[in-house]
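Thought: the user wants the 3D structure for the chain below. I'll pass the sequence to the structure tool as-is, report back what it returns, then summarize two notable features.
Action: structure_tool
Action Input:
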Amino acid sequence: TLPPQEFGTAMKSPEPVNYGETADVLTVQWLRDPSELEPHADDWRALERSANHTHLSSFDFITAWYTHYAGSYGGTPLIGLAHRHSRLVGVAPMAICRGRTGTVPVTRIELAPTDVPAGEFLTARGDAEVISAFMDALVEHATFDVVCFDGFAAGSDEMTSIEQAASKWRMAMECVDHAYAVADLSRGYENYR
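Observation:
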């Protein structure tokens, strides 16, 4: 992975761009420096309370991950923020990674954290339009060869949004099924056993 200063031209525009099909204005802005996240902390945490998510998209986890792992290990930070008017409605924590397939250089965009087979967009429940906007903004403003998203269930609203965007932008898509056990520990570990 190249240091951020050597890969600073991957995004063509840091300015917010309007997206969305509804009357509400939906803008997407990309941040490249994790130090720019702090002003969004309260809004991000408020969005967490309205979303069905794991720790992988929480403000506290992602900012710590970017601080300690992004860069030469985890890739160049690429953080998408989606707003409807002034309200934060989505976060796309990603990283730009550079590698090679044989001798061919490959630029890959992944959801952060890049070192686990999971990741997620943070959106309010059922807001597939935000994921579509992230995908549109990514295609329109980033330079990449491949996008690798892990952790989306087949048939989910999120996966459907990704598939529709891939089709819209004529992107080839490949899905690999990963089976993971799910344990309901809501009543405690002793009750699970």
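Final Answer: Structure generated. The first helix runs from residue 41 to 49. The helical segments are 41-49, 59-69, 128-141, 157-168, 189-192.
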